[in-house]
Amino acid sequence: MMKRAGFYALLAVVMLYCAGPLAWQLITSIKLSGEIAVLPPLVSTNPTAAHYLSVFHDYSFARYILNSLIVAGSTTILSLLLGSICSFGLAKLRVPFASLVLAFILSVSMFPPIATVSPLYIIIRTLGLRDTLAALVMTHTVFSLPLTVWVLTNFFRTVPDDIYHAARIDGCRPFQVYWKIMLPLSLPAVFTTAILVFIFSWNEFLFALTFTSASARTVPVAIALFPGIHEMPWGEIAAASVIVTLPIILLVLLFQRKIVEGLTSGAVKG
Amino acid sequence: MKDKERGIRYVAPSLIVLTLVTVYPVLYVFYLSLHRKLLIFNISKFIALDNYLFLIRDERFWNALRNTAYFTGLSVALELLLGLGIAVLLNRSFRLKGASRAIVLIPWAIPTVVSARMWEMMFNTDFGVINYLLGVKINWLGSPFWAIHAAIFVDVWKTTPFVVILLTAGLQVIPRELYSAARIDGAGSWQMFRSVTLPLLLPVILVVLLFRTLDAFRVFDAVYVLTGGGPANSTETVSIYAYKVLFQTLQFGYGSALSLVVFFCTGSIGIFYIRLMTGRRT
Amino acid sequence: MAEIRIIGVQKKFGGSVIIDDLDLVIGDGEFFTIVGPSGCGKSTILNMIAGLEAATGGSILFDGVTVNNASPQERDVAMVFQNYALYPHMTVFENIAFPLRMKKAPKSVIAREVGSVAGLLDLDGLLGRKPRELSGGQRQRVALGRAIIRKPRVFLMDEPLSNLDAQLRIAMRSEIKKLHDQLRITTVYVTHDQSEALAVSDRIAVLDRGRIQQCETPRAVYERPANAFVGGFIGSPQMNFLDGSIGGRGGRVIACNGMELKTRLVTAGISGKVTVGIRPEDITVTGKKREGGFKVEAMFLEPAGSFSWVDFKWGHHVMKGRSDNDAGLEKGGTAYILFPVEKIHLFDRESGMRIG
């Protein structure tokens, strides 16, 4: 009995450790500015939505959110399209040095972004793509490709080769097997990958910081560079944080199982 | 048995964009690092290895490398220990297990920038909730000693869920019978952990170490947003230093040399772990 | 419908030769079975006929036209796989309709054809289900339906029954046979189960290590095995083998196990070491002494219903024979065996080839 109580106490500490900071952010975001700068009281006596309104009125956050949505959405679609075609080739067709190709693609995920950011900046400037969403979509797509290819290749390999053969016999060209059989068949894995890629792109900072200045700014950059005239607008920062985090948290809580599947794909041999 | 259709056509598009956007830039970085390139003045001059010779004598670079190594070592070790503890805790059966697992994922899902901002506020000397709860008045982000540890703490908080996820998956594939057998053989819980759990978990632990060490070594956003590298460069990592040289002083030549150091360090770390893993398998 | 002609076909994989110089003619409308132990290359042959694998040498002709470079859809073949390979995300209807959809058949035609195939295979009530909601036998019938719907020129089956339980396997076997009788489509059937091969085929090719050992009707393969491998592989329980030698007066006597058997099977002039094969079902074991019978020791009885299989020891050989249930045999007791001399198979001991 004591042991059980100890276990639940420990569990409670872990849960508080994981969720506490976000909860605190939520509490802060509905405090009046004057209340934020003093403790106690911990919880606001007079909750306000002022910071949330200010984030949209004074800091054009709607624009940043739209930018982030466009970048993350396009990245997800492009990465999955390119990656799933590549994975299909690797898993079901004859590719010379297939394992070497896969190893190369994976090794790209080890490339530190900082080591590519300076030439990419020059290339993007030369192409006239500075401060455009396209520049971000391109880099995010490429840097998410290793993850997409890894998860989908692992999944496609679990589909029996005979399904591929049956489709060929039934009159599909290889690309039709991909489009009409493999992709619909793999929707759960595709969905998992989509969530992971979306979260990656939504959260990405270094490229977004370097390649954009105003019109293509995404939410993480906006939060990092929150302008403060005299002092930090902590209430607004808290509100903005809650706004960009809640959709992601919602995704995580809803699709926890799928996300875990995707993250552990291939890392653990069952 | 594979189709005679050549799969290379399917793989090529991905390979081409990967090469264009990652391999080509790394080669370009090397080229840049052999030049003095000042973007604003349109200066570009071949100076051979001068940037690297400067780098060797650059005390700020060595400081950044020390910071990066310290940050990497301590945060990876803490993440592993904490992650292992939480994974073992969550591997028991109890009510609300699914919900608990989802909650553990929250720090992973929060954008790094947001988490840095969040902790920045909580670490505030005057109104930060941490000082309030501890009943102290420490200037966490203002003192060199505390700042690096605060940065490590934020990184540990943010990335422990990833460790938990992988280790939990590793724990789940350990056959239950092994524990029954160990118990029949008279092993206590610590002995079972030492002689069953840990050895069987080792391959997954290596994977975790690989991912986490690589990520920690190239850390940028968490620390950059939390402290900007300060105070007095006490939290400046090589990535942050490289970024500042590149985009604040716009010295693309020297900045490229610095970023190549990160590239070679992470490359070596990757090769080291992969050797370790393949060595174990054979 | 088509006649399939395989000429000098070879398949190498890496350094090893899987199929070497294969010649085969499968007649129009024939039910042709390739049988052999696992790893003998039979599925490779099927895949080469299907166009899923390319031959590294030789040619494959359908009705006299080379199809080596034709894709599976150009060859117009249909195939049934061991694990059914149904599309898990499609309903039974969609699975069966898929080949017609790929041919861009009009919706009304598809509905009509699927309806008639479903009727033929007794799948009417299951059209809305997904494969995972079906039993093994039902999945097998869906796989058959998907194969027959577009009336292919050639029908290929790769171990289609080996994932079914024993009873269902026998039921499906006669269903496949009936289907073939109705449709008369050239069928190439691959199996490792010799009894299945004997039951369904017009002709059988026995394959071992990439080479055809014998290619004849089931009856010929059973009654006159071309070599010791075929003798041992076809027939159940397995054929008994004894070492013997042909000696003396014109090679008419086989010394075997210390006994001399007079036979007229051997052509004059041959002498030397041979392997003697006798099928268990050709050996009668009794408890009473019979004229011309050899004395053996009964070791083990395995009742098979209307009769029993008997393991017995003859000299130092352990062999199998059959006995009537009232033969009065006892475990460990003395028994006598009888077999007609003309049922003996003789193989050259060196080459394994049939003699006589």
Task: Describe the overall structure.
The complex is a heterotrimer of chains A (270), B (282) and C (356). Chain A is built from 14 helices and one strand; from the N terminus they run H-H-H-H-E-H-H-H-H-H-H-H-H-H-H. Chain A is 75% helix and 1% strand. Chain B has one domain: MetI-like (MetI-like fold, Orthogonal Bundle), CATH 1.10.3720. Helices cover 74% and strands 4% of the residues of chain B. Chain B is globular, with a radius of gyration of 23 Å. In chain C, strands 6-7-8-3-9-10 form a six-stranded mixed β-sheet, sandwiched between helices. Chain C has a five-stranded antiparallel β-sheet with strand order 13-12-11-14-20. Chains in contact: A-B, A-C, B-C. At the A-B interface, helix 1, helix 4, strand 1, helix 5 and helix 6 of A face strand 1, helix 1, helix 4, helix 5 and helix 6 of B. Strand 1 of chain A pairs parallel with strand 1 of chain B.
Strand content of chain C: 25-35%
Strand-pairing-aware structural class of chain B = mainly alpha
Number of continuous helical runs of chain C: 9
In one word, what is the shape of chain B? globular
The CATH topology of chain B is given as MetI-like fold
Radius of gyration of chain C: 25 Å
N-to-C SSE string of chain C, H for helix and E for strand: EEEHEEHEHHHEHEHEEHHEEEEEEEEEE
Percent helix of chain B, as a range, is: over 70%
The largest pleated sheet of chain C is described as:
6 strands, mixed
Extract low-pLDDT stretches of chain C: none
Note the overall shape of chain C. globular
The major β-sheet of chain B equals: 2 strands, antiparallel
Summed over residues and divided by their number, the pLDDT of chain B gives a mean of 87
Straight-line distance between termini of chain C:
38 Å
Order of helices and strands of chain B: EHEEHHHHHHHHHHHH
* Oligomeric status: heterotrimer
Name the strands of the widest sheet of chain C in spatial order: 6-7-8-3-9-10
